[in-house]
Design brief:
The protein is α/β, with parallel strands linked by helices and 249 residues long. The chain has 8 helices and 6 strands; from the N terminus they run H-H-E-H-H-E-H-H-E-H-E-E-H-E. The protein binds zinc ion (2 copies).
C-alpha cells in the first residue's frame, strides 16, 4: 500500500502549483512545488523595521503596532509581503490540502530563527475545533513542522488551544483587531494545572509562534498573552506573509 506522500507525488503533475508552468526538478528543487519564477515574485520584508515587530518604521514617533503587545512577545518577523504571488501561495496552503507546499513557504521563512541560539520550541497558532474539522488540517501546524525540520526544533501543538474563532476583518485598525481576538487562546490543560503545578508546564526555553500571515500581529499578541499568563517569558513569532496595511504609518 502506498504511503500518503507517495500517493501525493503520484497525483501531482510536474507543474508549478501556482502558475502551472513546468517544474524542472533539478538541483535542490526536487521537492518544490512552486517554481523559481513564482518564488521570485515574493517580495522579502526587509529592514529598516521596528526591531520588535518587524514592521517598517513609522515616519515619526514610536511604533504603534507593537506598543500594546504583552512583554513576553519580543521579536516577530515575516518572510515576504502579502502581495499577489504570496497571497496565492497562502491560499494554496490553506485550501488545497497539499502538505508539500508548506516546505516551499518554510524555505523562505528559514532565515535565522528569531530566537537566535536560544533553545526553542515551535508553537503553531491553533485553529478552533470547528474550523479544524472543516479544513481537516491546521496550515500553521504544517508550516511549523516544515520549519522544525529545517531548524531542527521540536513542534508543540499541544500547548495552545483556540477557544473561539475570530472573523477575518482586515479592515480593522490594530487596536480593534486586538479587541477582536481578546481571549481567543488558552493554554491547554490550564484548568488542571498552573505555572507551579506538575500537571502543566510551559517550557522555559523560548517559544516561537508560527502562523501563515501577519496582519497587525493581534493574533500572535493574543497567543503570546495566553502563554505569558501560563509562565512563558520569551515568545517570538514568525510568519510567511505580512499584509500591507496601507493607512497604518
Ligand atoms: Zn510558478
Ligand atoms: Zn513595532
Amino acid at each position: 500500500m502506498r504511503s500518503t506522500v507517495a500517493l501525493e507525488q503520484l497525483l501531482l503533475p510536474a507543474e508549478c502549483l501556482l502558475c502551472h508552468g513546468l517544474l524542472g526538478g533539478g538541483g535542490g528543487d526536487a521537492d518544490r512545488i512552486v517554481c523559481p519564477v513564482c518564488r521570485h515574485r515574493w517580495r522579502p520584508v526587509r529592514p529598516p523595521w521596528c526591531e520588535r515587530c518587524g514592521q517598517p518604521e513609522p515616519h515619526f514617533g514610536p511604533c504603534r503596532l507593537c506598543a500594546t503587545w504583552p512583554a513576553a512577545l519580543q521579536v516577530v518577523r515575516s518572510a515576504v509581503w502579502l502581495t499577489a504571488g504570496a497571497r496565492e501561495a497562502v491560499h494554496a496552503l490553506k485550501y488545497r490540502g497539499l502538505p508539500r507546499i508548506a516546505d516551499d513557504l518554510a524555505a523562505v521563512m528559514a532565515r535565522p530563527a528569531p530566537a537566535g541560539d536560544e533553545p526553542s520550541v515551535l508553537v503553531p497558532i491553533p485553529l478552533a475545533a470547528r474550523r479544524l474539522r472543516q479544513r481537516g488540517y491546521n496550515q500553521s501546524e504544517w508550516l511549523a513542522a516544515a520549519l522544525g525540520r529545517r531548524w531542527q526544533l521540536p513542534v508543540r501543538s499541544d500547548l495552545l488551544s483556540r477557544v473561539r474563532e475570530t472573523a477575518t476583518q482586515t479592515a480593522l485598525t490594530p487596536e480593534t483587531r486586538l479587541a477582536n481576538v481578546a481571549g481567543a487562546f488558552a493554554t491547554r490543560n490550564a484548568e488542571v494545572g498552573t505555572r507551579n503545578s506538575s500537571a502543566f508546564r510551559v517550557p522555559t526555553s523560548g517559544l516561537i509562534l508560527v502562523d501563515d500571515v501577519f496582519t497587525t500581529g493581534a493574533t500572535l499578541a493574543e497567543a503570546a498573552r495566553a502563554l505569558e499568563q501560563a509562565g512563558a517569558q520569551r515568545v517570538y513569532g514568525v510568519t510567511f506573509g505580512r499584509a500591507v496595511i496601507p493607512d497604518f504609518t
